[in-house]
Inverse folding.
C-alpha cells in the first residue's frame, strides 16, 4: 500500500510518500514541502499548491491520500489557509479517483508515538526510527506528512480493504455494462 | 465588465453573473446554485463544487470572479466547508487566469443597500431592484452571489483597470518573448 500524506498549509504544505503494510517495516518513497510565497494572491497560492500536489501524484502514484483534518480552534488566520490548502489536496486526489482519508493531529501522534499529546520532536524521532532514516526530516511539516501516511497504513487496513473492494466491484460492474 | 459572484458553500454554493459598469444599469446574465449532497465524502463534494463552477465559467466567460471573504468567527463546522468551497472557486478562476476579488459580507451589504448590517431580505430586495428582476432570486445564496458581483462592479473599477492593465502588460511581455 502506497500512501501520500499531506500536512496542509499555504506557506509550507508537507508531503510524504510511504509504502508498506501494517505489521511490516515501512519504506519512505519520498518527502518534501510545497511552498507558496506569502505575498502572492490567495488564488495564486492555491494554484501553486495544486501544481505541487499534482506533481507528487504524477511522480508517486499513491493508492491513498491521507490529509490532516483541520480544526478551527487554532489560530484564526492560519486555519483558513490550512483548510483551503487541504481542500486543494483533497480535490486533486478526488479528481483521480484516489480515496482520501482524514486523520486528526492527535490520531497521528497516537499512531506513531503512542501518545496523542506527543510534541513535534517526538513525532520526528519516531518517524525517523520507523522509516529507518539517517536524520529527522526537516521541516516539521515534512515529518508530519510522513507521520500521516504511517498513521493511515496502520490505522485503516480494514477500512482500506473495504474501499478497495468497493472500487474493484464498481470497476467490475462498469466493465460488465460496457461489454 | 462581466463578473461571476460566488457565495461559497458545500451544501449550496450561490453563483450569479452580472454585466455592466458602475453608474449604468446592470444586467443579470445568469443565477443559480451548485449543490452537493451532505452525505457525500468531503473530497467528492469539493469535486462536485469544482465541476459546477467550471460549468459556470465555461458558459458565461466572466472577466472577474468575486468571492465572499470567509471569516472563522461564525459556526465552526460550517465555516470550514465554506472556506474549502471558496478555495475551489478561487482555484478554478486562477487556473484560467481570471482575476479573483474577495469582498466581506458587510462590504457587499453596504454596496447594495447602503448599510453593512442589512438583513437577507433587504439584500434580496435591492438585488431585485438593481437588476430589474420580477422577483427576488431564491435561495438567498443565489441573491448573495448576485450582490457580490454587483459589489465588485461598483467598488473596484479603479482596481479592475489596474489588474487589466497588468494582465495586458504581462500578455504583451510574454508575446514579445515568444516572437
Amino acid at each position: 500500500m502506497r500512501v501520500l500524506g499531506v500536512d496542509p498549509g499555504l506557506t509550507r504544505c508537507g508531503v510524504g510518500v510511504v509504502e508498506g503494510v501494517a505489521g511490516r517495516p515501512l519504506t519512505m518513497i519520498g518527502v518534501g514541502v510545497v511552498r507558496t510565497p506569502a505575498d502572492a494572491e490567495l488564488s495564486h497560492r492555491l494554484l501553486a499548491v495544486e501544481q505541487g500536489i499534482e506533481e507528487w501524484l504524477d511522480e508517486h502514484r499513491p493508492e491513498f491520500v491521507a490529509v490532516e483534518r483541520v480544526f478551527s480552534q487554532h489560530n484564526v488566520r492560519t486555519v483558513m489557509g490550512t483548510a483551503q490548502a487541504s481542500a486543494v489536496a483533497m480535490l486533486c486526489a478526488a479528481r483521480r479517483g484516489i480515496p482520501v482519508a482524514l486523520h486528526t493531529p492527535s490520531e497521528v501522534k497516537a499512531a506513531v508515538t503512542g501518545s496523542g499529546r506527543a510534541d513535534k520532536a517526538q513525532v520526528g524521532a519516531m518517524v525517523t526510527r520507523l522509516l529507518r532514516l539517517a536524520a529527522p526530516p526537516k521541516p516539521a511539516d515534512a515529518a508530519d506528512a510522513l507521520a500521516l501516511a504511517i498513521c493511515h497504513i496502520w490505522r485503516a487496513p480494514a477500512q482500506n480493504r473495504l474501499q478497495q473492494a468497493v472500487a474493484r466491484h464498481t470497476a467490475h460492474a462498469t466493465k460488465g455494462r460496457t461489454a
Remarks:
- Chain A is about 55% helix and 20% strand.
- Confidence is low (pLDDT under 50) at residues 174-179 of chain A.
